[in-house]
Amino acid sequence: MAVCLCALLSAAFVNAQNSTRQTSVVTATAQGGPRLETDPVIISTANVPAEATATTVKAGVPAVNQLLMTAIDKRLGAPYIYGSTGPRGFDCSGFVWSVFNSAGINFTRGSARYLWSRFAPATREEETQFGTLVFFNGLTHVGIVVDGKGFYHSSRSYGVIYSPFNRYWTSRIDGFRRVPVPVQLQPTAE
């Protein structure tokens, strides 16, 4: 009887979290004014932001950016699940690995600290380029830069979302890394 009660309460809790997550995602107040910086934002785009492709000079990079953006779009709103690489949920490094793996950029999945040690530092210019990895909180959290204004990540509170580089996040940045892009990509089927 106690096991059934625990299972019922657990299912109710998960359902309440999911419905709270869906209703708490806002981009503006009811009056159309600006949203609070602490409010989560989910941005779904069909195309890579113009800034992401306009500043790239390497051949094939816009195509890679499109593959990355498509993979991100498919994961938006997925819940945070510690240690998971999807498809139903992600932790921060699992989200990053899954997005790049979907785009045909394969590397060993590991923690944020492992990814930091594996990839070369980004140049000053690369820090605001789409696809750069951004690291936070003593290398315990990682996300994917969109541009100088924000990044995508798997938040423990809200799952896979877009967050602006506001005072909260910029005060916690450890640094940036670039994932090398192979000349020939083999995107994975999802």
Task: Describe the structure concisely.
By secondary structure, this protein is an alpha+beta fold.
List keywords for this structure.
190 residues; endopeptidase fold (from Nostoc punctiforme); six-stranded antiparallel sheet; 6 helices; 6 strands
Walkthrough of the structure:
By secondary structure, the protein is α+β, with helices and mostly antiparallel strands. It has one domain: endopeptidase fold (from Nostoc punctiforme), CATH 3.90.1720.10. Helix content is 34%, strand content 16%. A six-stranded antiparallel beta sheet has the order 1-6-2-3-4-5. The longest helix has 23 residues, at 2-24. The chain starts with a helix and ends in a 12-residue tail after the last strand. The model is unreliable at 1-59 (pLDDT under 50).
